[in-house]
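=== Given protein ===
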Amino acid sequence: MTEAEIVEQAVQYMGLLLIGVSLIFSVVSAYIVALNYFVGDAMFMARLGAFAFVSLILALLMVVMIGAQNTHTGLVEALRELESNGGLSPAGRAVLDNTRAGTDGIVRLLLWVGMVTVFGALGYMTFLHRWTPDVVNVQLQSTKRA
């Protein structure tokens, strides 16, 4: 691979990372809405099934993102090899400078901390929190005023 191809792939990785994060936000948001309106009142087995399903989806996204991170690490190693054989362009040096600054490690750490936090929060909201749908709250408030 040429340096230009490697840098292009590294830039595409950043886009993939942002798409993965946005998908995680979308899945979690949709699940919280479902908890509020459907799953929160459901029997235990239904809540367990819903949590298992959302966990499977989030785990799949996490595996894909870790695979992308590993591929990115390989691209950085390829740039290091090119650097040792000769000079790099400013774009190649910028990719390596990001890696040397610890950015890749920080991204990986934040992904893991974020996912552990998400699983903990969704587990609490699924199994421990007692949901009352917003429709019931609105009806209760209107009867109290009357």
About this structure: Residues 20 and 61 are 7 Å apart (CA to CA). Helices lie at 3-37, 44-85, 90-100, 103-127, 134-145. The chain is about 85% helix and 0% strand. The two ends are 74 Å apart (CA to CA).
